[in-house]
Amino acid sequence: MHKNLAGERLLTEIDYARLNKLHGAQLPPELIDTLDSLDLVPSREIPPDIVTMYSQVIVEDLDSHQRQKLTLCYPADAEPHLGFISVLSPVGASLLGQRVGAIARWRTPNGDACAAEIVSLLFQPESSGDFTT
After folding, report:
1. pTM for this entry
2. Which of 6, 24, 45, 129 has the greatest number of C-beta atoms within 10 Å?
3. 83-99 pLDDT per residue, tens
4. Does residue 93 contact residue 30 with C-beta atoms inside 8 Å?
5. Rounded CA gap, 112 and 82, in Å?
């Protein structure tokens, strides 16, 4: 475990373990890089402004200023048309471990650069006392 510094991306130890089990699912390079750079903390110690698995966030596109509600989930639960975004997607990998106020950046499949600010965190499992989801 690394020393945590303000502004660094964090991940709960349980999310890290579960995501590493997805290696057979051909993890995208963005997620592998993200997992290698995140600092791990116990679920009970994750700050309430960090995007964890099954967190529900409001993001605002930096270009269009459109806001959207997204829930970060595992691939089996992904329903993009309902806002359930897989952590294996470029958007999902860019949100994981970010703080409210951070800018998430990713590339679309055709290579376009996208960016959105994490405006608010509507729900985080750990903040509600759920340390096992």
Report:
1. 0.89
2. 45
3. 999 999 999 999 999 99
4. yes
5. 23
